[in-house]
């Protein structure tokens, strides 16, 4: 191809990109973002979004580089929440509890505070510790499936994925069964914390839920200080790293984070994964006959339809991303879902392939903010999926009309109805 032809191709791509002012909040994008990701990646992989001027990054190599870069910081959502106080009509109320708690969420923290807190908390979520939980997780999955076995149908989200996540986190923290339903209600409210566009009323509801969940947890922490148990709260109280200890506010924030973000994302990982397998009969059949492939299968379904689709970073210095200059202070939206479907990294990226090798997806991010609960999410998904298809081998979708949660950050189904032989 001659130079003139190359120049013409570049011009056409640029014009196509300029004309492509896609809307992140379009219902079609919400239902299936992947065609849009492909178009962006091909026409303008570092795209200036027409709303707010944020940079949208879709290529795997670029997303990976920014995640590992020392020239970016996390989005200052806690400050943004705090600033919402001035819009409250009732000045006796505020969003201070929510603002402070989110400021201690690891994914909104930066070094050196992030480094210190991560060192204190990370040991509790190591793969070795999580592996010891397999028998407990298996017990919970068996109990949940026993409840629906006689019906011949179930909602994967409401009957398995969501209650499993709540039960696992509750057992991890040492929270009794009788409190789990109330905790689930609080977490349904708190799950919106990751979304960039949240109404003032929703923030008020999240603040109230945070106050209530922390009031409950304070009592539990006080009990564990007097009488430590084999649970995470007791371990967090005792945690030490270079003579540092966690404050009660830190412990409250960590526990709130587990329920607010951990429950939602793990539940969505299971729901999205089961849907993907049911839509690819050859893959689920292979997994039935070769259950030892479950670890590889879970990595593939996490790549294929990531529960977290986007992360935001702020440039602290000018940096080059994909031949574009992003200036200090500008916002970068990293499309994890797009990176995980990049054909330059994953051959035939739109195909679900549980035999895929070298599956270095970025569904759990990368760098210093790599997801703390990644090991736990993997184990929960492995056990839930393998147990489900073993106990209900003829499972199938009960409806093709599926509705996705209205969020541009979290990708998950509102419900996933399935049927099986009683």
TrEMBL record:
The keyword Cell membrane does not apply. Keywords: Coiled coil, Heme, Iron, Metal-binding, Monooxygenase, Oxidoreductase. One of its GO terms (molecular function) is monooxygenase activity. It comes from the Bacteria. InterPro entries: Cyt_P450, Cyt_P450_B, Cyt_P450_sf. Residues 206-249 form a coiled coil. Belongs to the cytochrome P450 family. This is Cytochrome P450.
């Amino acid at each position: 191809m001659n130079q003139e032809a190359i120049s013409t191709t570049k011009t056409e791509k640029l014009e196509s990109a300029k004309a492509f002012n896609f809307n992140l909040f379009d219902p079609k994008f919400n239902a299936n973002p992947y065609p849009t990701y492909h178009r962006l990646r091909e026409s303008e992989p570092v795209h200036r979004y027409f709303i707010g001027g944020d940079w949208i990054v879709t290529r795997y190599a670029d997303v990976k580089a920014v995640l590992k870069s020392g020239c970016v910081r996390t989005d200052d959502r806690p400050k943004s929440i705090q600033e919402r106080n001035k819009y409250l009509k009732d000045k006796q109320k505020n969003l201070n509890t929510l603002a402070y708690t989110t400021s201690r969420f690891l994914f909104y923290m930066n070094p050196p505070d992030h480094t210190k807190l991560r060192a204190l908390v990370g040991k509790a979520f190591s793969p070795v510790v999580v592996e010891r939980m397999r028998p407990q997780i298996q017990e919970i999955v068996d109990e949940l499936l026993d409840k629906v076995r006689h019906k011949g149908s179930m909602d994967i989200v409401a009957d398995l994925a969501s209650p499993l996540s709540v039960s696992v986190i509750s057992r991890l923290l040492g929270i009794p069964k009788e409190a789990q339903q109330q905790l689930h209600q609080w977490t349904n409210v708190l799950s919106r914390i990751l979304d960039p566009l949240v109404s003032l009323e929703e923030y008020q509801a999240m603040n109230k839920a945070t106050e209530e969940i922390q009031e409950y947890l304070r009592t539990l922490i006080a009990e564990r200080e007097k009488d430590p148990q084999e649970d995470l709260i007791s371990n967090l109280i005792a945690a030490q790293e270079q003579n540092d200890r966690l404050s009660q506010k830190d412990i409250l924030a960590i526990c709130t984070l587990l329920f607010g973000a951990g429950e939602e994302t793990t539940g969505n990982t299971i729901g999205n994964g089961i849907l993907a397998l049911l839509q690819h009969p050859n893959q689920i059949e292979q997994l039935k006959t070769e259950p030892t492939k479950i670890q590889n299968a879970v990595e593939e379904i996490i790549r294929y339809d990531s529960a977290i689709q986007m992360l935001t970073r702020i440039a602290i210095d000018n940096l080059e991303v994909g031949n574009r200059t992003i200036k200090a202070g500008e916002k970068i939206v990293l499309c994890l879902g797009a990176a995980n479907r990049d054909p330059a990294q994953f051959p035939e990226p739109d195909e679900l392939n549980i035999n895929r090798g070298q599956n270095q997806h970025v569904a759990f991010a990368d760098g210093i903010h790599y997801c703390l609960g990644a090991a736990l999410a993997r184990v929960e998904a492995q056990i839930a999926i393998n147990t489900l298809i073993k106990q209900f081998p003829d499972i199938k979708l009960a409806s093709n009309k599926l509705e996705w949660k209205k969020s541009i950050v979290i990708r998950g189904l509102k419900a996933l109805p399935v049927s099986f032989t009683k």
